[in-house]
Design a protein that fits this description.
The chain is built from 2 helices and 9 strands, in the order ββββββββαβα. By secondary structure, it is of the alpha+beta class. About 7% of the residues have low confidence.
Amino acid sequence: MPFYDEDTSLLYLIGKGDGNIRWYELINDAPHIFYLGEYRSSTSAKGACLVPKRGLNIMKNETARILKMTSAQTVEPLSVNVPRKGEFFQEDLFPDTRSAQPAHTVSEWLEGSDKAPLKMSLNPNAGATGGGSSTTSSTSFKTPTQLKGELKEANDRIKYLEDLLQKNSIDF
């Protein structure tokens, strides 16, 4: 099962029925692939997945976390860490990565939009943003007053729609 990390150009190979995981760096120049390391285990894998970058412990230089489902129906979390001195943000290990925010709406996508994914910084000192990148506008946190106003608007809209359904004898 291949898993590719587009941020760091690393390829993780996890053998189904095998307990070992190997990782390689991919580059444009020959020989194009370099062996970096492996995890050995006698517990075979039935499946696996990579945790998104925003879920990693970046201050401990965790560059990947693999969730390996074993034949014993358990999930084994495996961390891939780069050994470095000091616990501070390492920019070379953590370039901007995909954010949790979509790049476009469903209607834009259905119309054929082909936008690049939004990126976010993993640097904890970069400040709190809404998950956008420097090329997109970031959203700031909302105040309790703003949230209460939005909640009131949403509740008013729900009441209006419920009244409309009732007026037209539509059960909900």
